[in-house]
Design a protein that fits this description.
mainly beta, Immunoglobulin-like, 3 domains, disordered C terminus
Amino acid sequence: MHGTTLILKGHDVPAVPHVDIHGLQFAEYGPPGHPEGLKARAVLSAKNDYPIKFDVPPLAFEILVPDCHEDYLVLGTAQTEVVHILPRQVVSASVTGMVRQLPTSLTTACPGSNSSPLDSLLADYLGGRDTTVYVRGGQQDENTPGWIGKLLTDTTLPFSLPGHPFDNLIKDFALANVHFGLPDPSADPDTPAARPKVSAVVKALVGLPAEIDVNLDVDKVRADADVFYLDGQLGKLDLREWQPANATKVGENLLIQSIIHDAPLEITDDALFAKVVQELAFGKKGVTLGVRATVDVSTLTVLGEFVVRNIPAEGKIFVKPLGGGFKMPEISGMEVVDTSDVALTLQARVNVTNPTEYSASIPRCNVSLWVNATRVGYAWASADIVPGPNDVVVRASWEVGPVGSEWLSQYISGYNTTFTVKTHAHSIPSLPDIGLEMTLPTPRLFGKFLKETTVRFVTCFLILLTR
């Protein structure tokens, strides 16, 4: 039997064929409950354009990724099965890869950067972009001819892994148990303390890719979130600090939950913010806010702990309208607590019903009081508003000018009187005018208040008139 010799010279050396990678699957391997690493399986296909036929024995390779210094890091190893090369046909090869532990240098941020080599690799893959890894020969089986092992060890070739667009990786992103905290009145402007605060439970439902059968746990998350209303950006929710988190398997998905405390909300459109507040106060349909975020997730896997960065997330937050279950505030226990030459200081209890499931802390709120078209004073209060009924102590300075005196006269005489409450710029420190206006009936002076309140009002009113 005679052999055939194929001699290739110079430009006759064939180019590396284009290789398609498909059927890529990831799974843990090792004893049940004690995985040792990550296994990847794939099928590589390439066209043999030459009239040659031969078998390629099983071969070992190292999988390399670029490091921070234009060198390579060994990510794992790969092993092929016997490959049958047929003339002028598409040839397929089954490949199994192993990753036992991620090298520290792969997950450490590069000098002068906030991202690591692994961040770049995952960012391309999750973004649907092709990801380049490099392959060179590894430690071959003893039956493999030495010249093949030497040739492969001295050769490093790039391989392009097909990206997988995970635009819907986070299927749902929402906030629950929301608590709003208003700015600290003493805070310096343009600082985080001068912004509203949001405390809530952040819930992200992650759809795990079918080709990745790997147990994942999550210990912390962070995000940059933009808040939208009516296609306009309302503000930015600052979640850039790492927050503790936990993950629960829900069917084929992973539910990640994290509790955030006092995350600053920067209002970027004052007019839009006023529309939201007015719609909540007087509308009947409620308000749907959109949230678009990029999320960083610190994951715990069989390969160790690493961060998956810049995962796109989008969700909606529906805020129930106050108008749906809103009751007109009830004023009771009105009394005069101080007088001056030009004003009375009044105090009253105001019963306000909050029909939503949201709560809010109001360190200070100031509104103006109007009778007809004349401002007659100011009212101020501090309160922690919870869902349901709330009793709030309010104080007011009532200016006893012509309009104010006439109103007091009618009020003391038992007429049905009303006054109007209006917000103004900085009614709530560091926030724009939310444009609220409400006309309230004044409580009548009868019953248990007649004896005390009427006498004090009349006495103070007569003193002011005689000055």
